[in-house]
Amino acid sequence: MASDDLDREVWSEARELVASAAALVRELVEEGVGGFERLADAVPPAQNTQRTPSAPVPPTPRPRATPPFAARPTRPVEPNPLAVRASGGLAPTLESVRAELGDCRRCGLCEGRQQIVFGDGNPRAEILFVGEGPGEQEDRTGLPFVGRAGELLTQMIEKGMGIRRADVYICNIVKCRPPGNRNPLPPEVSACRPFLDGQITAVAPKVIVTLGKPAASLLLDREIPITRLRGTWHEYRGIPLMPTLHPAFVLRQYTPENRRAVWQDLKAALERARA
Ligand code: SF4
Hints:
The chain is α/β, with parallel strands linked by helices and 275 residues long. The protein is built from 12 helices and 6 strands.
């Protein structure tokens, strides 16, 4: 075989390998697989020596240091039938969504909660924040983001953005506290999802700001590497969406870089909402 033909064949095989690897990774992620062994560790050394020196090497999936969002993003749901039904076919209001939620026992999180933490803020807010789930103090008070992370969020909103916390709307993916502040599980996220969608539909904000990886991953329906994708614009059902760091993360890593990053994201969100 001529050298050019050989090169073409090698490249063609390499492309197929890369495409197969990418498809496999997508499937594994969809199946909830949290990490991958390095290919070099998985393949016996003897096989590694069989490579043709000039052949392109398909990329090795990067191992994850931590498992992905335990509550794997679910597919976007259709327009929220619960809230629409509750409001007699009209666009949902926060009251109708809350009424439909009732004394919810749709998932196991109801067992350990003290109270449902529905959401808080201006029902006509221009900016809607979405976090992950209530913590201990939220569970006790029934209000979202009132612990230390909540205090930081309030500071970010009031001192950073220059607006009152009461002018925005704040809610979470799940409305009941996961035990031990663990990540909500996929069935819990799915059970609560229509109510989050109902809240977003009811408030109809100009901008959504997701706090942390789980909220961004859920609304964008894919794993979001938050430190890389924060600060970039996305869209959820036609609404501009800005992913930013979770205040709890900023508290844990209280560096000037992280604070500056969140400030930039919130400033961009405010400008977009006011444009
Ligand atoms: S987390 Fe949501 S779906 Fe689950 S019990 Fe609480 S309100 Fe209901």
